[in-house]
């Protein structure tokens, strides 16, 4: 049924990884990589000098891809523990838009993509929240708005903020070390930036390129990217200055066909949203109904979204260095990045009411839909909506470092920094917005699930044209305003003592203090006028532009299926929002919430503050000795972490509910907030031991054992309870934090064997095992909240149902609005087939039953998980042909997996992101010509949901690049990303139940690089 190309490529990918590490050509870097944390890194500016072969006493200087791979062999061979990295030479050569795209080339590293670009990193199956990111050994703040529709809470570092230019190296510490900061059980990822005194003299480079993104819905404009770096030293090379910068603009589209979903059911379940039981009305409309013990899921909604993206990224760094004496080096650096993204979403959507339905299903025990259809009475809407998000993430880091090479083999380093990360909207509307419009008169709607993408179709009542723009009526809207800021102040004092004895080689010791302050805020204004806020005549017809749909999903099976929705209407969001504000006061006088004057930016109703202070001393002993007459090393150390948490929150106080449309409810807030505060603390001893031996020449065996931790997300640590603002007829949801949560803890065991059979070639195999505890689970407590009641289940509802002899929501609401004016407000009407139905708000009364809310609260469960796997790697140079290959394959397995066949009413414990991954690279480097073709693949993985799982299907992508240095110092290059246009897809328990399907397109670039 499905044939995504990524699946066919899977069989082509063989084992393992080339670890292109951080050294520059000609630089000896045999030191332990962990010792560089917090210290100035090597310059990424390549030495452009060339040694000519054939002259007596001269060596051939190897540059380009070969130099990077040669250094990869040296660093991998000489390092202690498992430390993989990629150098600026490799990053610059790969056709990657950001660091996440570059990191995926490393063994065991895979990425999550957003808007067609790498955003978050998964290492050995552990997602971004389990990894710690540092900049030159300094803990970096994180900032992302998440979905923009709730209070941000993630610790995940967003690599989409960083361009790959201007970075010297990225190191991935897969095993714990006492000298490496705590906070990642998947890995610690250290970003290293260049320093001027590493490469005395004046040197630099400038690159200019144009980018053509073939995904664009309207045209294919070429957008610019410019990057440059200049470094100079003076005063006898004792003072240095380095300035680097990058500017990138990208315009793209990321169209998506999606299906929203309700909770899962057992075949024997009954209730709102479930399939009719055998023998009940509607059961005859079901083909191959799931059996009583089969699991199935029902679609709630579906949509086609045409999404246009405009992204502007700016990165820069200024570094000042001084070396007043041969033993003292002072460094001051300022690093800046901003990533501004505007996303415009135009969609056509359908919603189900679960009344008169028909469906067909695959066989159990995990039944998936073949189609799902519903027929409606008059007044049902076909939605044409628009959304706009324009948000900016800005990172700033000011740091200083003093390194003193004292007498007696002692080196002391004092390092401090002040860093912030902030994300917020850039316009007057908010971080996540939506304006709804509709044509009323939908008679039936169907989702066909037998293709890669869901095929949506509909029929309208006679006389209603779904493409008649004069019938488009404005409906509900919402404007959400999220804000996140993370500020870190850190001081580190480290010492290194070179003993150079026959057994004890050196000692490392240090102390770190981290003060992490987080603010997460959120508010929204909303108008639940889904039945219509005013007549269609209030909106000028020329505001709407008809756009075809099938051609926007080229390459996906189902895009040209019979009956597919042919088109939708786009509109200018700003013009529509301002028009609705002028006509109806949607922002200045909304039904829910309040906005800042003159804007649609909601006042914050949730405002969370968290202070996290950690002290962390460590000591590490590094030894070297002979074992069975062969060289061996043993590194043993311990780190102690103590963290205090102070969490407070202002949360809104709900006072009522209203029924606003057939399946839409809204919470009414008092406008006041209440303040709550929670505290917690924890401590951990984190031992680490690394051992290696070279039993025979050019063969190295390694073993490592360590304890590592990863801290809870900020949302779990919050100090208050919040209620989600839109409950359904069956109940609502909410959440509550727990500041006393302990961090995840992992006990790690690693083994590896490596054979270095040539200067630029090796084979390696590694095994890892992680036993993880302190997992954070969520318990759902069914309880009333704030005395809120359900206006769709009380005596008024029963009176309407008895009088009309139906449960059709449109007719029930019309009856209540006409007969109970004291507890309802009429806001409009809709005419279908000559019948007028009132629309408006129906308010809860004291006679209505209490709403049930499922309040989710996190806690440290006694559940544990074992994650284990294998990493295979080969790097091979094909003699003097200029050709070479790099292969890697990572196998990740564990015992915390989701069982799709179990009762969906019972939550399950499972780890997100566990999946195999692989890379295959073919390169050429000879005679000034360099070329590379790289294939990256990631297997299907569980993406979350303790009750209702979602999965992202296997995905593979081919990238390519080539360059030619046609005159010394001047290089022309071309690059292609996703060359074969691979598509992406996700699903629920059943492969049939697609959650999203996105077509893939290639992105091309070309330019000139000048070095001096």
Q: Keywords for this structure?
A:
mainly beta, 30-stranded antiparallel sheet, five-stranded mixed sheet, 7 helices, 48 strands, disordered N terminus
Structural class: mainly beta
Beta strands, count: 48
Indicate the percent of residues in helices.
Answer: under 10%
Outline, from the CA principal axes? globular
Radius of gyration: 30 Å
Description:
52% of the residues are buried. 6% of the residues lie in helices and 53% in strands. It starts with a helix and ends with a strand. It is globular. By secondary structure, the chain is mostly beta strands. Residues 1-61 and 90-95 have low confidence and may be disordered. The strands form six sheets. The chain has a 30-stranded antiparallel β-sheet that branches. Helix 6 crosses helix 7 (809-819). The protein has seven helices and 48 strands.
Quick summary of this structure?
With 1012 residues, the chain is mainly beta.
Q: Topology of this protein?
A:
Elements: H1 5-9, H2 64-78, E1 83-87, H3 88-93, H4 99-103, E2 109-114, E3 117-123, E4 131-135, E5 138-139, E6 169-173, E7 187-192, E8 203-213, E9 222-234, E10 239-253, E11 256-266, E12 286-287, E13 295-325, E14 328-351, E15 356-361, E16 369-375, E17 381-406, E18 410-425, E19 432-440, E20 442-448, E21 455-460, E22 473-498, E23 504-527, E24 544-548, E25 567-571, H5 573-584, E26 606-627, E27 630-661, E28 664-696, E29 699-710, E30 721-723, E31 732-736, E32 744-758, E33 761-773, E34 776-783, H6 795-804, H7 809-819, E35 824-832, E36 835-843, E37 853-860, E38 865-877, E39 883-894, E40 917-926, E41 929-938, E42 941-944, E43 950-952, E44 955-967, E45 970-977, E46 984-987, E47 994-998, E48 1003-1011
Helix pairs in contact: 6-7
């Amino acid at each position: 049924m499905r044939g995504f190309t990524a699946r066919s490529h899977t069989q082509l990918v063989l084992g393992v990884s080339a670890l292109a590490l951080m050294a520059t050509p000609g630089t000896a870097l045999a030191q332990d990589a962990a010792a560089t944390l917090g210290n100035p890194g090597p310059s990424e500016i390549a030495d452009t000098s060339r040694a000519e072969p054939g002259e007596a006493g001269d060596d051939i200087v190897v540059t380009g891809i070969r130099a990077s791979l040669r250094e990869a062999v040296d660093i991998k061979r000489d390092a202690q523990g498992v430390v993989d990295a990629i150098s600026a030479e490799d990053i610059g050569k790969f056709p990657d838009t950001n660091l996440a795209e570059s990191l995926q080339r490393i063994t065991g590293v895979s990425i999550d993509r957003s808007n067609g670009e790498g955003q978050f990193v998964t290492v050995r199956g552990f997602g971004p929240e389990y990894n710690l990111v540092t900049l030159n050994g300094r803990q970096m703040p994180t900032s992302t708005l998440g979905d923009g529709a709730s209070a941000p809470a993630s610790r995940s570092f967003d690599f989409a903020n960083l361009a790959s230019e201007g970075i010297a190296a990225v190191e991935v510490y897969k095993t714990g070390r006492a000298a490496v900061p705590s906070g990642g059980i998947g890995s610690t990822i250290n970003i290293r930036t260049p320093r001027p005194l590493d490469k005395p003299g004046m040197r630099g480079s400038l690159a200019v390129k144009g980018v053509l993104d073939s995904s664009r819905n309207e045209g294919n404009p070429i957008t610019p990217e410019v990057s440059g770096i200049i470094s100079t030293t003076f005063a006898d090379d004792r003072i240095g200055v380095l300035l680097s910068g990058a500017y990138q603009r990208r315009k793209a589209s990321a169209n998506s066909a999606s299906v929203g979903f309700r909770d899962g059911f057992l075949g024997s379940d009954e209730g709102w949203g479930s399939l009719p039981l055998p023998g009940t009305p509607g059961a005859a409309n079901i083909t191959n109904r799931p059996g009583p013990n089969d699991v199935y899921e029902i679609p709630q909604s579906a949509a086609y979204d045409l999404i246009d993206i405009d992204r502007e990224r700016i990165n820069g760094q200024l570094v000042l260095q001084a070396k007043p004496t041969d033993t003292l080096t002072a460094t001051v650096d300022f690093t800046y990045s901003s990533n501004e993204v505007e996303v415009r979403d135009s969609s056509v959507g359908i919603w189900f009411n679960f009344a008169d339905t028909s469906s067909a299903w695959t066989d159990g025990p995990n039944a998936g839909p073949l189609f799902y259809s519903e027929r409606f009475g008059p007044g049902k809407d076909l939605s044409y909506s628009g959304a706009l998000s324009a948000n900016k993430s800005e990172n700033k880091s000011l740091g200083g470092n003093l390194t003193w090479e004292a007498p007696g083999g002692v080196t002391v380093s004092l390092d401090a920094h002040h860093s912030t990360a902030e994300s917020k909207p850039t316009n007057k509307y908010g971080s996540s917005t939506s304006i709804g419009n509709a044509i009323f008169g939908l008679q039936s709607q169907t989702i066909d699930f037998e293709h890669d993408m869901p095929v949506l179709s509909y029929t309208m009542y006679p006389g209603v044209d779904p493409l008649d723009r004069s019938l488009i009526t404005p409906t509900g809207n919402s404007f959400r305003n999220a804000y996140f800021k993370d500020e870190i102040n850190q001081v580190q004092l480290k010492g290194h003592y070179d003993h150079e004895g026959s057994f004890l080689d050196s000692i490392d010791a240090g102390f770190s203090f981290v003060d992490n302050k987080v603010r997460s805020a959120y508010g929204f204004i909303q108008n639940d006028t889904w039945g219509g806020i005013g007549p269609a005549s209030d909106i000028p017809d020329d505001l709407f532009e008809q756009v075809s749909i099938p051609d926007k999903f080229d390459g996906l099976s189902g895009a040209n299926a019979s009956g597919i929705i042919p088109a939708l209407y786009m509109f200018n969001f700003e013009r529509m929002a301002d028009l609705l504000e002028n006509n109806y006061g949607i922002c200045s006088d909304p039904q829910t919430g309040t906005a800042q004057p003159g804007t649609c930016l909601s006042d914050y109703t949730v405002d969370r503050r968290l202070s996290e202070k950690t002290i962390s001393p460590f000591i590490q002993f590094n030894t070297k000795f002979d074992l069975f007459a062969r060289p061996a090393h043993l590194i043993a150390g311990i780190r102690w972490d103590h963290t205090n948490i102070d969490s407070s929150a202002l949360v809104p106080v709900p006072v009522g509910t209203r029924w606003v449309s057939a399946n839409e409810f809204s919470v009414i807030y008092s406008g006041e907030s209440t303040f709550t505060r929670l505290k917690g603390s924890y401590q951990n001893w984190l031992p680490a031991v690394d051992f290696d031996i070279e039993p025979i020449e050019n063969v190295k065996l390694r073993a490592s054992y360590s304890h590592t931790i990863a801290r809870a997300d900020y949302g779990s640590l919050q100090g208050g309870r919040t209620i989600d603002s839109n409950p359904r007829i069956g109940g609502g949801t909410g959440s509550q934090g727990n500041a006393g949560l302990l961090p995840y803890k992992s006990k790690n065991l690693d083994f590896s064997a490596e054979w270095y059979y040539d200067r630029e070639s090796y084979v390696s195999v590694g095994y890892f095992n992680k036993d993880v505890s302190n997992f954070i689970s969520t318990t759902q407590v069914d309880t009333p909240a704030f005395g809120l009641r359900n206006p769709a289940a009380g005596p008024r509802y029963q009176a309407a149902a008895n009088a009309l002899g139906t449960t059709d929501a449109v007719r029930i609401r019309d009856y209540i609005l006409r007969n109970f004016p004291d507890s309802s407000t009429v806001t409009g009407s809709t005419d279908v087939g000559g019948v007028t139905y009132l629309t408006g708000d129906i308010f809860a009364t004291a006679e209505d039953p209490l709403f049930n809310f499922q309040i989710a609260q996190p806690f440290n469960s006694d559940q544990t998980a074992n994650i284990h796997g294998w990493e295979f790697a080969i790097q091979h140079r094909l003699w003097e042909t200029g050709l070479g290959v790099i292969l890697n394959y990572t196998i990740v397995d564990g015992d915390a997996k989701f069982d799709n066949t179990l009762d969906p009413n019972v939550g399950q414990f499972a780890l997100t992101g566990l999946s195999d991954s692989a890379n295959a690279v073919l390169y050429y480097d000879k005679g000034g010509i360099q070329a590379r073709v790289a294939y990256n693949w990631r297997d299907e993985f569980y993406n979350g949901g303790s009750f209702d799982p979602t999965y992202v299907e296997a995905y593979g992508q081919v990238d390519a690049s080539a360059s030619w240095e046609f005159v010394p110092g001047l290089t022309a290059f071309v690059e292609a990303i996703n060359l074969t246009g691979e598509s992406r897809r996700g699903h629920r328990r059943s492969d049939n139940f697609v959650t999203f399907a996105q077509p893939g397109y290639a992105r091309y670039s070309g330019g000139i690089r000048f070095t001096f």
